[in-house]
Batch of 4 targets.
Target 1
Amino acid sequence: MKLVFPTLAYKEKAIEFINEFFEYGSEVDGSGSLDSFVKEGKTYESWLEKVNAAIDVANVDYPKKVPALTYFYVREDDDRIIGMMNIRIGENDFILAEAGHIGYCIRPTERRKHYATQMLAEGVRVCKLMRINDVIVSCDKVNIASAKTIMNNGGVLDAEFYSERFGEVIQRYVIKV
C-alpha cells in the first residue's frame, strides 16, 4: 500500500472509486471534495486544480480555508484506489473544533480489511513530518468502525458534542505524535 498524490493518470480509477460510494449509498469523507465535483458534473481536471491550489500555502483563503494534502491510498499489486485521505496541514477554528487534521474513507468493497488503520497511520506520519504534534481526528459518534480506527492509532477521546454544521454528534480524538 502507498499514498499517491492525485494525477491525471488516476482519473478513471478515481471516478470509479467515488462512484462506488454512490452505488452503495455510503458517506464520503476525506476525498478533498472529489465526491462533490463528480455529483455536480465538474471535471476531474478541475478537481485536480483545486487539490493543487490547496497546497499553495501562500495563496490559500485563510482563515476560511487551510492548506491541505489529498492522497489516494493505492494497493500496489493492482494499482487500485482503496481509500482517500485529506490531511489539513493548517489550522483554523473549524479544524481544531470539529473537522480535525485528517479526513479519510475506504471504498465500501474494501472495508473490514484493516486498510483504514494502516492509512490513518500513514496520515499521522505525514502530520509528524509537518510538525503537527497533536493530530485531531473526528468521526460521527455512530461510526464505531472509524472510532476504533482512530483508537488503534493512539487516539484518545477529547470531546463529544453536537455539531450544528454536520447535524450530528461528533467525537473528537487527539493522537499524540
Target 2
Amino acid sequence: MNKKAFYNMSYGVYVTTSTDNGKPVGCITNSNTQITSSPATVSVSVNHDNYTAECIEKSGLFGFTVLAVDSDPEIIGKFGFFSSKDTDKFSGFEYDVKEGVPVVADGCAYAVCRVIDKMETSTHTVFLGEVIDADTLKNSEPMTYSYYHKVLKGKSPEKAPTYVEDAADETGAKKFVCDVCGYIFEGDSVPADFKCPICGVDASHFKEQ
C-alpha cells in the first residue's frame, strides 16, 4: 500500500480544544469533517495518546479553530508537539471561552460541539459532535494540510491521523532538522540567531540530518 495516495485527499489544519476542570487544553488535528448541516454536526479524530482526547471524553465538549494561512505558525508548533498535561499551550496566544470551551482566536472560524457519539479505532477516537456555537473570526484563506507541508514545510506529529513517515531525500542537499517539530532548514549551517518558523525554538534544536 502506498500511503502517499492519501496526500491527495483534502485536509485542513485545526486547533481542537477542550477543558480539564476549567484548564484549557488542545492539540492540532487535521481530520475535522462536517457530517451534516442541519442539524449541524461534525467529527474530529484525536489520537488516544493525546491528553485532549481524554479531556473531551470527560467533559463531553470540544471546540476547534480553523487555522488560516496567515495564522501564527508557532500555534502549530505549540499545540502539535507538546502535551497539555504538562504545558500551558495557550500561553502567549489570544483565546476566548465559548460555551465553556477555550477557542484560539487566530484563525478563520471556530465551532464548539457537544459530543453525541464516538467511534474507536486502534489508535484514534472519532468524536461526533453537535455544533452548539460557531462563527467566523477573520476574512482569510483557510490553511490546508498541503499548504502546511509545501509552503511552511512542516511535518505532522506522529500522533496525527495523517502522519506518514517521510521517504528518504535523494537530492543530496544539506539539511538540519528541528528536534521539536521536524521543520527542515536547508543550508551550509543554521544561523546562530535562527528561530524555527513552526515552533519557535532556537538554533540549538537543529540537528544535521
Target 3
Amino acid sequence: MILVTGSTGAFGSAVLTKLQEKNIANRAVSFETSLDWNNPETFEIVLKGIEKVFLISPPNFVDFDKKIVPFIEMAKKEKVKFILLSTLFGTEKNPDSTFGRTEKIVAESGINYAIIRPNFIFQNFINYDIQSIKSGRIYLPTKNSKTSYIDVNDVANASAVILEKPEKHFSKTYTLTGSESLSHQQFAETFSRVLDTKVINIAPSNKEYKDTLSSYNLPPELVDFMGALYAGIESGAFTTTTNDYQLITGKYPITAKEFVEQNRLIFSD
C-alpha cells in the first residue's frame, strides 16, 4: 500500500492518478482531509499498513522539516519500507532551506528513500496564468531568462515508476526537467502558433509584478514568495536541463508545444 500525501494538490493528485492507472493499491491523504501536519496524532492512522510513501510539502510550509520529524518516527514504528520525497529544483544549492533540511532528515532516517526535485511545471500556465493567456499575454517578471519546465504528468509518471519498483532507486536523487529550456517570449510564440491567436510576452519588473499581485488583495507573504520565485528565474537559476526523466522512465518528457496542443481547449474556451 502506497500513501500519497498532498493528494489534492497538483503533484499529489497526478501521482495518485498514475498509481490508479497502474492498479497499485494506495491511500490518498491531504492537509485538508485526514493528514494534519500540525497534529501528529493523525500520523498513526494514515500510516497504518503503509509500505511506501510519496511525501510532499503543502504549499508555502516554511517549516516542513520540523513537521515531518514525528511523521518519520511514526513511519519507522509502522515499518514503512520506502519514502519518495518530492522537493524543488535547485534544493541542493539551499541546504539550509526547509526543503534542504527535509531532504537531510529523510536521508538520515534509516528508511530507504529517493528524492525528486522537479522544476517549474507547465500546468502553472493553467493554474495561475490562464486568464492572462486567454487575454493574449504572458505577464511574468523574467525578462529573457529561460526555464526548463516539465509537465506535472511526467513528474507523476517518474514518481509512479520509482514507487512501483523502488529498489532500483534507493538513495538516489533526481532533478526532473523538460528536455528544452525556453524563455517566456518563446512560450508566447508557441502559444500564438498552436492557438492561432496572438499572445505577447509582457515582462514587467519584479516590483510591477508584485504591485499587480497586491492589487488582487493577495496575502503579502504570498506576494513576496512569488516575487522571489520569479526573481530566481530572472537570475537564470532554473535553466538547466537533465536526462533524469529519461533515465527513470525510458521516455522523453513532453515539449512545450505538445503541452499547449494537449490543452488547446483549456486555453481557447
Target 4
Amino acid sequence: MRRTLTRAIAAALLVAYGFAFAQASLPDAAASALAEGEAAMAEALVTYEAQYPDRPLWQRAFAAGRRAASLAPERLEPVRFLAEAYSRSQWTGPAWTAWQDYLARGGVLDDEGRALAADVGVRLAFGLYEQGRTDEALDRYIAVTELAPDVAEAHVWAGRILIETERPAQAIAYWRRAAELEPSDERAAYFLAFAQEQARWGSRAVDAFRAGVASYEQGLLSEAAERFARASTLNPEYPEAWAWLGRTAFERGAFEDAALYYATAARLVPDDDTYAYWRAESQRRAAGEAAPAVEGDAEDGAAGE
C-alpha cells in the first residue's frame, strides 16, 4: 500500500512541476537520477511525520539531485528539484540559495515554487532577526516581497525592521502594502500611520511623544511633561509635542507655561482653533481672570475644564 501511495505522489509531483516533460530531453543518466530523487522525496513525505534534512530518505533525495545536476550542469531541472527538496525537508539555508540560483539562471516559478521559496525566505529571515542580524534579515524579507508580493508577513517584517532601525520613510511602502493585503489587520493600519508620523517628525521625537502620552494616560504628569519637552526639543516644529506639553502644564496649574506652549503650537498650525482656544484660556487663567459666563450657568464654570 505504501509503495503504491509513494508512486502516486511521485507521479503527481512530476506532473505538477513539469518534470515528466523535462526529463524526456535530459540525458538518460541525469533523468534517471532525477527520477530517483523524486521517488525518494515522495517517500520521505509519506514516511516521516516531521521533515528534517538529516533523515535517510532526504539524504538519498539530495544525493540523487546533486548527481543529476553534475550530469546535466547546464539544465535547470536538477536545480529546481534540489530547491524544492531542500525546502520540503526544512533545510532553509541551502533551499534559499538553490532558489536564488534557479532564478538567476533564468528559471520561472510556478505558484507552488513561489510559495515554497517565500516560506523558506521568511523563515530564514526570522532566524537572522532573532540572532540580531537585522540588516541581513531585512534583505531577506525585501527579497521575499519582490519574489512573492502577496506575502503579507514579509511586508510586515520589512516595515517593522525599518521602523526599528529609524528608517520610517522606507517603511511606509511595506506597511501600506501589508494593510492592502490584510485590510482587517489593525496592526498594519496602526504602524502605517506610525511610520508616516515618524517620517514627518522624526523617529526619536515621535517615540518621545508617544512615551509622553503613555505616561499621561497613567496619570504621571511630571514624567509626561519631560517626555513631551524632549519631543519638542528633538523637533521644535512638532506641534502636537508643544500642545501636549501645554496640556500637562495647564493641568498642573502652570498656566503661564501652558500659554507659551500652546502659543508655539498655534504658531505652527495657525488654522487649528483648538490650540488657539487653549492658548487664550491659559492666558486668562494666568491673569487670574474670572471664567466667562456660560448661558444657563452664570455663576461658575470654566471653558475647557
